[in-house]
Amino acid sequence: MAQIVLVIHLLIAVALVGVVLIQRSEGGGLGIGGGGGAGVMSVRGTANLLTRITAVLAACFMATSLTLAILAGAHSRPEGLVQETPAMNPVAVEQPAAEETPAETAPADEAPDLGSLPE
Hints:
about 120 residues; mainly alpha; 3 helices; elongated
């Protein structure tokens, strides 16, 4: 489904770019279709038609953009917050026994022997 909407979205985008470039430029912009008006329609009629086509294509482009965003979000949404949370059981932490303490640690009331340190 998303691939079909994506192809339609790309076709609309290409058509929108083409229609915008065909329009007659009023300020010397990028319009390439600003030639003579010796066609079936007058210059004003062509401008109105191209403006309407641009508006319709822009609305279709926005609709397909929103559809693609909704389709992309539907796959990554969690099913429920209650199911996603871990169990609230406290984990018992085992305390080491007194005889398991390392023999290298000195008691807190004795100062360490500093005579064996290199200078």
